[in-house]
Amino acid sequence: MNRLHIDWTACDGRGVCTELLEEVLTEDDWGFPVIRDGQGAIPPALEGAARQAVDRCPMLALRLVQK
Ligand code: SF4
Fold first, then answer.
1. What is the 57 CA–ligand 1 centroid distance (Å)?
2. How many CB atoms are located within 10 Å of the residue 27 CB?
3. Ligand 1 atom 6: the closest Cα is on which residue?
4. Domain ranges of the chain
5. From ligand 1's centre to the CA of 59, what distance in Å?
6. Whose CA is nearest to atom 2 of ligand 1?
7. Contact predicate 53/21, CB 8 Å
8. Tens of pLDDT along 41-58?
């Protein structure tokens, strides 16, 4: 299973990822993504949405890593 990794040095809190991956991410008060379970595990059913989020992140701050 893949896990979502956020590069906090690149993320600027635009929030595209939280819209695409509501099941995995929520937003803090400043718009930065928060991983709901603290782990970022991506179930197979959300793999496509996770890849979209990675591709659409304007800061290239997201990637999927093997768990
Ligand atoms: S889309 Fe990218 S830059 Fe925007 S909040 Fe998500 S990780 Fe950060």
1. 5
2. 15
3. 17
4. 2-66
5. 7
6. 57
7. yes
8. 999 999 999 999 999 999
